[in-house]
Amino acid sequence: MGRRTIAHRIKGGLRAVVATGALLSVGLASGTARAESTITIATVNNGDMVVMQKLSPQFEQLHPDIKLRWVVLEENVLRQRITTDIATKAGQFDVMTVGNYEVPIWAKQGWLEPMDKLPASYGVDDILKPVREGLTYNGKLYGLPFYAESAMTYYRTDLFEKAGIKMPEAPTYEQIRGFADKLTDKPNQVYGMCLRGKPGWGENMAFVTSLVNAEGGQWFNAQWKPEIDTPEWRNAITYYTDILKSDGPPGATSNGFNENLALFASGHCGMWIDATVAGGLLFDKKTSSVADKVGFAPMPTGSFKGAPTWLWSWNLSIPTSSKQQEAARTFVAWATSKDYIELVAKENGWVAVPPGTRQSTYDNPAYKQAAPFAAFVQQAISVANSTGQTKAPRPYEGAQFVAIPEFQGIGTQVGQTIAGTLSGQSTVEQGLKTAQAATERTMRQAGYPKK
Amino acid sequence: MRETVFQRVFAFVVGWGVAILLFFPIAWMVLTSFKSEVDAITPRLTFTPTLSSYAEVLSRADYLSFALNSVVVSVGGTVLALLFAIPAAYSMAFHPTQRTRGTLLWMLSTKMLPPVGVLVPIYILARDSALLDTRTVLVIMYALANLPIVVWMLFTFYKEVPKDILEAGRMDGARTVSEVWYLLLPLTLPGVASTGLLSLILCWNEAFWSLNLTTSSAAPLTAFIASFSSPQGLFFAKLSAASTMAVAPILVFGWFSQRQLVRGLTFGAVK
Fold first, then answer.
1. ipTM surpassing 0.85, yes or no?
2. Do residue A287 and residue B37 have CB atoms under 8 angstroms apart?
3. Are B233 and A6 inside 8 Å of each other by CB?
């Protein structure tokens, strides 16, 4: 009796398994079916990309033969995901969102299609020159910019007024330190200076690299020898750790861009030096409680004027492994066009258009009025000087990064050491020695100096 | 032996303490999902609840297609793992050889390698068999990834079953298959069920392979969550809303199957 009921139960279970199997095979069949003109777009989840995804049905209306599929991922996940795909030439993506760090490196590998054969109406020359230069390899463009940024100084006009100080038109790092001391009011959780402290080549090292450049330092000398254990780096890192220790928020080593944005937007920072994209977010009453008290100033300068500062762009590129290159090209040209910028302005207002890409955007009076920080952004991009020289000649390009494949690893490793000096685990002196030794080792293993 | 008052109070405090500690992040996530983005960055408990994050999340991504993928790959991976693990655990538990112990340890050792170490080979294998972005590849990967744990769990459950019962079955003329089917499975059903449940939960939460091997057609809920984390701007409320929607099905499922799970996990603990 007992055995029979158990047998029944098992039979019921078996049926469920078979049913699941059937369901599974139906799922598999539908999972592999694909239309001819579908292009897959891999992108980061930033505000401008979300807007693009929302407006993309208009593209599909214009081009009924092209369907779009979106893969939206967080920056680091996206980088790993598309690197795997492009390095194995698997061809899962037809359009990739790639940073200006990767574009020249990947172009050199032959992984990206050149962006030529663009229609005259596209206006390649309208793209801001520093941005365009960052995407050029051997005289050809390998990505079209969707959005670009430099960095600037944000400050609280009300706190400056209260402290009786005035932000100069072109502040220096020394002046900034004096202001930070005056603004800091720790009992009320107001910190004079917020800066990135979270380790990572695109986090703390973005600011640190820019600061080192401004103090006359560099990552590598003309023979590719690391130049980290030098007086210039020592000055820069001492400044960075001192200002954050005396005027920074507690636990600065866990603050990246987003954390500082949240701190500033909720009124805890007197000043903040970071990417220009924060301007729009801090100025927006929906995302910032200090929207009417934000002031803008250029990035401070150090002892070496005209040093490379900061230039980042997110670009749309087409991998050579894509099987839908024509359709992909049509889409990329649409999404980075003047018409697209006007479409965003029409749908969401001029303040929401993707910044930093086209001269025509900055010439537009409606944009200048809607975004009072626009002039700062354009100015910051034009002096970013990412292909220029540091105080001593350098063999690499890049403003807040070094445009070689090894830099992701090196930057993150040194970033951890710098975070260690910030949290007090080691002195600046020890930290720089450690970073120098580690970088020398990595570069030797990577076979530098290369011919 | 009777419990003293102290023991009871102690058990009460520790039990509830641990429960609240474990549940706090989930409760906080659910709470945050009802906040506006500006409220979400402050640890305030008083706020005006809003459904705007849910509306935003639903308007940007097709939740149901992600959820369906999650269900199919989790169930598929678990069923496939059980199909292989039941015979494997049976033979190791009842017909051990000199190498059984070593084999078991070796199986477990495969879990000690970080998955990213084999990412490129697996990716190339998937590419060459045209399995990228299909549910099949996730079903296979999940089954393989969970196989060591599933075999180990089943093995420990089977070890509890006296050999004499199976022997009696053989005397009555049962062959291996009916031995497993009519005797072993019914006897260890709670164990098999809890193993299956655990495997299901592990599959549901697996994020590395699902993010790397799928693009859009086969992307499960882990990819859905990942798409709401942002390099700029405020996203905590939207991310919390997406996460709440992703964990809700498995949470409800876990709640209903709680008894089986506890029974299975403590199976054989008290003779």
1. no
2. yes
3. no
